[in-house]
Write a structure and sequence with these properties.
By secondary structure, the chain is α+β, with helices and mostly antiparallel strands. Helix content is 25%, strand content 30%. The strands form 3 sheets. It has a 5-stranded mixed sheet. A 4-stranded antiparallel sheet has the order 2-1-9-3. The longest helix has 11 residues. The protein is globular, with a radius of gyration of 20 Å. It starts with a helix and ends with a strand. 29% of the residues are buried.
């Protein structure tokens, strides 16, 4: 949605394109799969919270291909109505990723506030209706009648999110130095090591690996691997 971090990343990745807002990641992904849009931009990893799990699961069986990426610095603010004080805050709305990235602030500064996860930081600011309401989001969400708590509220100021530019198969893909794949190994000793040894033998530098359970098979895992 307008003002979300995903929209900021979209502007950086394709500034000349028409940007179509969707309420959540699943809807944005589905729009590109159906051909309603030419591509979509999704967050894939945060430096504080790790992989964005719902999007990793989306990509596991997606027909879309990641052809570019952008790393955006995330600067969270606690946004609330002008005239309110921090002690007035009783409800905090935001996306669950932003909530997780600010968990220490929420626990130590406003421990009595109810924390409510919504579909995006942009939707969170739209939920502010009372003097006791607040939202975690970027300063781009500030509007008339709202103010922001001064100071950093993320658990660590070095807060970055990597976004992927995803599109359907075509002849005009952008080409980057990194490759991002999903692999499934046999459940036996050394199977993952065998895969990684093949990569090492061809001089490929693995830059990321993360496992996700295969939902249909208890105890089985797929591996998301990035290399260059």
């Amino acid at each position: 949605p307008e003002g979300s971090y995903s929209q900021l990343a979209c502007r950086r990745l394709c500034p000349q394109a028409q940007h179509v807002p969707y309420p959540n990641f699943h809807a944005a992904h589905a729009s590109a799969v159906r051909g309603e849009t030419d591509a979509c931009v999704l967050p894939i990893e945060n430096s504080l919270q790790g992989g964005v799990l719902q999007n990793l699961d989306l990509l596991k069986e997606s027909p879309l291909v990641a052809t570019d990426s952008y790393t955006l610095r995330i600067e969270h603010k606690l946004i609330y109505p002008e005239g309110s004080k921090l002690s007035d805050v009783r409800r905090v709305y935001s996306h669950d990723q932003a909530i997780g990235q600010c968990s220490k602030f929420l626990l130590e500064v406003i421990p009595d506030a109810e924390v409510i996860a919504v579909e995006s930081t942009a939707k969170g600011v739209g939920m502010i209706r009372l003097p006791s309401d607040a939202c975690i989001g970027g300063s781009q969400l500030l509007r008339e009648g709202l103010t922001a708590y001064e100071g950093e509220i993320a658990d660590d100021p070095n807060n970055f999110t990597q976004f992927l530019f995803l599109q359907r198969g075509c002849d005009s893909w952008r080409h980057t130095e990194r490759i991002f794949v999903v692999a499934v190994c046999e459940n036996r000793p050394g199977s993952l090591a065998g895969l990684l040894n093949i990569m090492a033998g061809h001089g490929l530098d693995m830059t990321k690996i993360e496992s996700r359970p295969i939902k249909q098979y208890h105890g089985e895992y797929s591996f998301f691997i990035e290399f260059k």
